[in-house]
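ugh ok so i messed up the first submission bc i forgot one of the chains. this is the corrected input, ALL of the components this time, i swear. 438 residues overall. if the numbers dont match what u have on ur side tell me asap before i send this to the collaborators (the ones from the other lab, u know who)
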Amino acid sequence: MTSFERPTLVRDGVYEHLRRAVLDGDLAPGERLGEVELGAQLGVSRTPIREALMRLTQDGLLIAEANKGVRVRTLSAAEARDTYVVREELDGLAAALAAQHHTPTDAAALRAALDDLHAAPGSDYRAQTRLDLAFHRAITHAAHNAALNDLNRDLEQRVALIKHQTRTYNAHPQTDAQHAALLDAILARDHDAARDAARTHVRTFAALVLNDLQPRSTP
Amino acid sequence: MTSFERPTLVRDGVYEHLRRAVLDGDLAPGERLGEVELGAQLGVSRTPIREALMRLTQDGLLIAEANKGVRVRTLSAAEARDTYVVREELDGLAAALAAQHHTPTDAAALRAALDDLHAAPGSDYRAQTRLDLAFHRAITHAAHNAALNDLNRDLEQRVALIKHQTRTYNAHPQTDAQHAALLDAILARDHDAARDAARTHVRTFAALVLNDLQPRSTP
DNA sequence: ATTGTGGATATTGTATACAATCCTGGCGAT
DNA sequence: ATCGCCAGGATTGTATACAATATCCACAAT
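and heres the new structure output, hopefully the right one now
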């Protein structure tokens, strides 16, 4: 046998299910999540549901109002801008650290992730979002810094939320070139170039998303 | 009247109580937290206890093992080092943004926080830890960036955890001078100097803490 | 003496019951 | 017609009951 059947906790299953649903855009921003309804859908009681919702709220994916339940979080244009300011810094750090510390296994994973991203149809913004997230996650993983991993997880989730709000396609003219430059710099172990490439990429993309988000919040 | 008596939720009270207890060092790293015991102590049922523990676990202050309850998290030397690497970056960003965006109110709060820190006796490491955290929190607040605030909250909590593990006093010879330089740079709206001052301060302090932590984890 | 086994005990995980709060809708007064 | 208000229903918040899992200690076998 490969491994014993591990008694996976119900609440963990619910947590992952809902998290995926939010990140994939199956749950629209602003949508309300009723406890009894979710419990009926997933066939479990309210208890693990509540605990999963609590964790997702702490992650920043949901917002809770007292006695009114939770909703999928919507971010204001200002919050989105703030997020990208921080992301530029942290993505730059992740790229620099990845350039310094990546292993051969990391290198292979990075290449594979970028290939997957290229293979996705440009019109499928959900797949694009998911694979872009996977690529950036591979970079962060290659940085081999646990604290950075945790923080980037939160940031990436927030970015995914923003993307689903704006429905911006990941593709812009320079995307492929920027991704390639970033990967090359990391593999060449040039941490300064990697940092710059990551920051430039974030900045370019942020401009695109924010331009799309602005009109809706300042009518 | 100033405001109506808001019906503060029990779970929020428990959450804040336990969070403060961990951050102040009343709960030692590694200490186990039993649900029934906590419930008896605070006079509430297990339900809000569980939900508070869930949130604190998600914050990274506690760790949970399946069917074995939660403990106050202990960080390895490697995790501590990783934390300070990220903190250097984010504290630098916070200082730079604070220099650019602080208001007169922020300036007053910053001065007050630093005064409080100076007034604390150098031998009381708990007060030092709490007031140092308050000072840094004031800087982050003055940056006026919601995303940065959220992330720094997590980081600061982790740093507090590390400090309680090592019991390192905040005071080192250059602390006062570095704090003063940092505050001056922010108030002068010199964001480059502010960033450098913050990074230097983190680096200096990290070296002190890590030097104290290293011997215990590599015997 | 040490190791392995078995059951008793305690603790967590899940489900359900009860209480409190909030939203909705309709009715009446102005 | 609009505003206020009260009742009904629905939903969250808290407590408790039940089930499943892990820990611990005694005791026997080698």
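quick check: Chain B has nine helices and three strands. that seems consistent at least. Chain B has two domains: 10-72, 77-217.
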